[in-house]
Amino acid sequence: MLTIEQKNNNEIRFMELLSKLNIDLTELNKFFDEIDYFNKPASTQYMGAYPGGLCEHALIVAHELGVLCNAYYPGRYTEEDVIKIALLKDVYKATMYEAYMKNVKDETTGQWSTVPAYKTREANARAVFGDFALSSYFQIKNFISLTDEQSLAIIHSTGNFPPDIHDVMRTYPLVALTRMADTAATYLC
Fold it and tell me: What is the pTM of this model?
């Protein structure tokens, strides 16, 4: 769980990073407001399953991706690459999950209580373009320009890989680095 101050600081840091792209963020900001991005969880029950968890996860991925890019390919990838990919690769999750109340049993007392939780919205209640990485790509491509390598890094950041993923990763190492950064942010940080 994040404090209100942590959540606000994460939102400020997120927007500071986006502003480094030197593009007009007006429409993207409207989109973030429309989907209530900064109050959304990163998952329903695992990492960041609380208000603001999605933004927090994006910032951790950005840090990890920056470290990996500098370690494996110093000078090849820019801060712009890291910002675009890490901050926007999971944007679809903001439309994917919804809050609800669930009943849980206290194992010690045997008493039931109702607690807030998140669940995946029904497919007919959200835009579906494939897995959430591909869906994120489709949601953001109209707001921000992406190179082929940036696009592929977002599309292949999570989920199942196509049969030729080894060739994709060899040709576009940013795909592998993004996957590694997301894995680190999810399981190690």
Answer: 0.92
